[in-house]
Give the backbone structure.
Amino acid sequence: MAYAYSPGLKVLESVTLQRDRRLPLSGEILVSQDDNVSAEQVVMKTDMPGRADMMNIVSMLGCLPNEIEKYMKKKQGDPIKTHELIAESSSFFGLFKTRIESPIDGTIESISPVTGQLTLRGKPIPVEVKAYIDGTILSTDGKEHVIVETTGSFIQGIFGVGGETCGNIEIAVESSDTPLTIDSLSENHKDKIVVGGSYVTYDVLMRAKEIGIKAIIVGGFDDSDLKKFLGFDLGVAITGQEKLGLTLIITEGFGEIPMAEKTFNLLRKFSGMRASVNGATQIRAGVMRPEIIIPLQNADKTTDESKTKLVLEVGKSVRVIREPFFGRLGIIKSLPAELTKLSTESMARVLEVEFENGERAVIPRANVEVIAME
């Protein structure tokens, strides 16, 4: 049977998921298969090579490239400290001296008698990778990556910024259509993942940073405020590497949009529980969505997140992603096979959707996204 696949989001109450944790290069794995790990536990580490600095030492010493060795006070591979003497030459019977000091801490990587260049390598940069979620080590290659598995609730957002973090969920509003305000926040929210309703502003985000809130989850946000929050125009890029001190996840879209009831109720159900969130987003090829993962120790029936298909089928929940019904949720009632003429006079495949208030509309299939809810 053929399926019509569509972009979409997953809101799953009980699911088994795996997350592949990787080092940028081979290093030391600190856990073994079947080990239980916590989200903030370091599971592997390595050292990245430091920055390479080039020095044109022949021009500094006033010598030929093949004469470098006799002026060097350090050899290739030797460790060096900032301001430590690495080369020295003298002239006029020792009356004048040229001293070359190291500009960095690191090592002498190479001395070229051909080019007269000296390569200094900065100190190695330590890299540690955390488990990110509470779970169990499913497998490891012993060199560069481990797979962490957990069972729990899984919610995807539309857009996010900021990296991985974890904390306890705190609901700060009464309903999914209530904006998150400064008055909604308090010092008790420090280190928490705070859930709002329909909207958050730049000023509220800045107050959240002052308090020490780890993440904000909310329905909508203005793109003009996003530029202020980031300090630059994002454009089309992969997010998640920003050093903001706060992760922001938008579940519905830009503007003031109530959070989907299913999403809000699921987060409220697990208020006070520990969750892991990641704002990383990519909207081009290889789509990546921001996510909230709530590990559950005694989950009931679970599904495999990787096997949850985002397909257009009668009965599936969808969200309209273009005007005139932008942001509205509904259920697919029919999927006509034939092409239909639109108001623009173009022909397209459509579907019939019934909104939550009972109203029905015929919409191009390209104007909706599937919401996988289980």
About this structure: The longest strand covers residues 8-22. The chain has three domains: 8-24+147-303, 52-122, 312-373.
